[in-house]
Amino acid sequence: MQTPLARRICGKYRYFALCGGIFVAACSESKTAQPSTPKCASNCNQALCTASFSGNTSDLLTLGDDCGALGVAPDAGAEGAYLLSFHGSSNQIPSADVSIYLGAAPSPGMFSAQSVSSWSVVATSSKNTGCEFVAGESSVPAGNFTLTLSSLALSSADANGGGSAHGTLNATLYLHAPPSTDCGAGELENAVIVF
Predict the structure, then answer these.
(1) For residue range 106-158, what is the model confidence (pLDDT) as tens digits?
(2) 61-112: per-residue pLDDT in tens?
């Protein structure tokens, strides 16, 4: 039987049990651990497949059912290469798109803006037409990101996709505003994506 404090802690941090198994023993009502392979579909834990934005604007986006799916990079060549991408929307962020090139043979671990050849994050703001938060290897300023892949399930990188991934992405984006347009206070936007 869980105490009221344990129920609050476990309810708040239950999604960690899906990713790392850390709280399974502490938060489980039974002695049997539940298997956990999170997939972001209609039955997915709501804490997964979300993007939290803060800085110039604040919002929480629920990502699409294919969140964490690996695709094929358009210029993959004969061997194929994996691409991690996300899309989401909300009232404050009408559109958010992330694309990170993982290469031909990715493995779980850390990735960053310095370790991948191609990446981009673009989020539109509802504050005014043309206001965007942007980061990527071809953006100025480039922004930054760290990606921690906790697990990968790779399949052949072909037109049918390339498997799935789970982890956390932290990105710093810069505000790009059209001339004489009020896009709100602050030039930085932080995004945290849990998938």
Answers:
(1) 999 999 999 999 999 999 998 888 899 999 999 999 999 999 999 999 886 55
(2) 988 878 888 988 776 554 568 899 999 999 899 999 999 999 888 999 999 9
Maximal CA-CA distance, the chain: 61
d(CA 153, CA 162): 8
Peptide bond into 108 cis (omega under 30): no
Residue 63 is encoded by which pair of tokens?
């990502």
- 30: CB partners within 8 A, 6+ apart: none
Pairing outcome for strands 82-89 and 59-63? antiparallel
Rg of the chain over CA atoms, in angstroms?
Answer: 18
Instruction: Give the count of beta carbons closer than 10 Å to the beta carbon of residue 160.
Output: 9
Q: What's the CA gap between 20 and 88, in Å, rounded?
A: 24
Cβ-proximal residues to 33 (8 Å cutoff; 6+ apart), any chain: 21, 24, 25
* Nearest partner of 169 among 89, 105, 86, 90, judged by Cα: 86
CA distance 68 to 163: 9
Quote the CA–CA distance of 58 and 88 in Å, as a whole number. 14
DSSP H or E run through 25: helix 24-27
Count CB-CB contacts under 10 A for residue 107: 9
Report residue 183: phi and psi, to 5°. -110, 15
DSSP 69: B
